[in-house]
Amino acid sequence: MARTHRLGFTLIELLVVLVILGILAAIVIPPMTGRPGDSRIQATAVQISNLKTTIHTFNIDNSRFPTTEEGLDALVTCPPDLAASWKGPYIEQVPLDAWGRPYIYRIPSGSTPAFLIASLGPDGQESTPDDITNLPPAR
Description:
mainly alpha, Glycoprotein, Type 4 Pilin, three-stranded antiparallel beta sheet, 2 helices, 6% strand
């Protein structure tokens, strides 16, 4: 039986490497410029962007987003009702934000936006101006 060897990298692998490099740059560059607080904010924003992309990949494979109850764990462990379509794990483990706290994941009532990913930011309090989310800023 002939063995097949995998040559090169998949697009997802390359995207993950680019996101990791972006997170590292967001952590390393601000302390060198005298703005260490900004590095955590930037690293968290990059990580939220990566999670957003991963959730969209989950949606493409499964024709739905993870439910609020499943949360981001659905990216690591197959939800019981998706055994036939789930192609994960989509990430190795659910990350924590730059302050060591879990991300908030919710499906808001209604369909817009499709989902919310949020970090409570430096103060650790929900619904304050320093929260970091995948949603555009309120006007």
